Amino acid sequence: MRVLAKLDGTLLDADTPLIRVDDLGITRGDGVFETILVVDGKPREMGPHLDRLARSAAMLELPPPVRADWERCAQVVLDNWSGGAEMALKLIYTRGPEFGDGTPTGYALGLAIGEKVLRARSTGVAAVTLDRGYDPEIVARAPWLLLGAKSLSYAVNMAALRHAETVGAEEVVFVAADGSVLEGPTSTVVVVTGRTLLTTPPSSGILPGTTQGALFRAAERAGWATKVEPLTVSQLQEADGLFMASSVRKITRVHTLDGVALPDTTALHQELIALYESEY
Ligand SMILES: Cc1ncc(COP(=O)(O)O)c(C=O)c1O
Fold first, then answer.
1. Ligand 1 centroid – CA 247 distance (Å)
2. 203, 103, 89: which is closest to 143 by C-alpha?
3. I want to staple 208 with a disulfide (CB 3.0 to 4.6 A). Which of 19, 88, 142, 202 is the partner?
4. Is the CB of 186 under 6 A from ligand 1?
5. Could you tell me the residue range of the domain that residue 239 belongs to?
6. Shortest-distance atom of ligand 1 to CA 211
7. What is the pLDDT of residues 210-242, one digit of tens each?
8. How far is the CA of 150 from the centre of ligand 1 (A)?
C-alpha cells in the first residue's frame, strides 16, 4: 500500500503523476528528504526529523520548510493509511521544476516496510567497511560538499550497498580517509563496550541519527554511559557489540565485519531494542 499527500495537504492517488519531468529533484538530485518510522499510527521522532529536514534544507539553501505544512501533509498520510501496523513515512522536498516559478516541490509518501529490512531486524547483517573518500577535516572547509545533509543525492550510498552485496554482505560502514569510522549509507554506527554506548560525531560529516538519539536518551536514563567521539575500525572489531541504527531498521545487529564473525550479541540486541522501545 502507498499513500501520497502534497505539501498543501491534498490527498492524491499514489499512481497519479506528481513530479514534473524537469524537477531538479529528479534531474540533479537537488533536494532533501526524511524517512520516519510510524508504528500504530504514531510517527517516531517527528520533531527531530523535521529539525533535520530544516537543517538539510538550509545547507542546500532551499526555502525554509514550513513546519506546520509538513505536519499537516504527514497527518493526511497517517489518516489514510490502512496498510498494517508499521509504515515508512517519507518527506520529499526538492528545489522544484528547473523552468518553474521557484516554488519547491514537497510531498509525503507512506510505504510499507520492505522485506529485506524486516529480515535484517531479526537476523542481523554482515557489514563491510568501505572508503567514503574524504577526510573529516574538509567538512567545515567545504560546505558545498553537503556532508551531513540528507540530500536526495543518494546514488553513492546505494552503490556502496550494491558493492557490499557483491562480497556477500548486506551493510556498509563508511570509513574516512584518516581511518575514522563514519556511518552506514542509510544508518548510524552504534558500538557497545561494557555499559557504554558510542557513536561517531556529526562534525565528521555524518547525519545525526534520530534513532541513535532516541536510543542514547533511553540508555542514559537507564544508567548507561554514552559517548559521541571518533571511532576506529579496530574499535568496531574489538567491541562487545556493533549495531547499525536507522528509523526503519531500528537497531540492527552486525554479526560479521569484513568477513570476520563478531561476538554473539543476541542478548545485548534484545536489551538495546527494549531500551529504544521504552521511548514510545
Ligand atoms: C546517511 C544516513 N545516516 C544515518 C541515518 C539514520 O538516521 P535515522 O536514525 O534518523 O533514520 C540515515 C537514515 O536513513 C542515513 O541516511
1. 7
2. 203
3. 202
4. yes
5. 117-277
6. 9
7. 999 999 999 999 999 999 999 999 999 999 999
8. 8
Q: Does 92 share its domain with 165?
A: no
Question: Number of structural domains, the chain?
Answer: 2
Q: Which residue has the least CA distance to atom 14 on ligand 1?
A: 186
Report which secondary-structure segment, H or E, holds 235. Answer: helix 233-238
Q: How many angstroms does the Cα of residue 35 sit away from the middle of ligand 1?
A: 8
Residue in 132, 150, 151, 217 to alter for ligand 1 test, most ligand atoms within 8 A of Cβ: 150
Question: 31 near 94, Cβ under 8 Å?
Answer: yes
CB atoms within 10 A of CB 266: 11
Angle, CA of 260, 189 and 94, to the nearest 5°:
130
Sequence-ordered alpha helix ranges (H) in 99-209: 115-123, 138-141, 155-166
Q: What is the pLDDT of residues 133-151, one digit of tens each?
A: 999 999 999 999 999 999 9
Cα 18 to averaged position of ligand 1 atoms, centre (Å): 26
pLDDT of residue 16: 87
Q: Is the pTM of this model over 0.90?
A: yes
Residues 133 and 260 reside in one and the same domain = yes
pLDDT digits over 103-112, tens only? 999 999 999 9
Residues 166 and 248 in one domain: yes
Residue from 39, 188, 199 to probe ligand 1 pocket by mutation (most atoms less than 8 Å from CB): 188
Ligand 1 near 252 CB (within 6 A): no
**Is the CB of 77 within 6 Å of ligand 1?**
no
Both 107 and 168 in a single domain?
no
Residues 102 and 148 in one domain: no
108 and 129 inside one domain = no
Q: Give the burial string for 90-127 (b: 16+ CB within 10 Å, else e).
A: bbbbbbbbeeeeeebbbbbbbbebeeebeebbeebbbb
Q: Which of the listed residues 55, 82, 113 is the one where a domain comes to its end?
A: 113
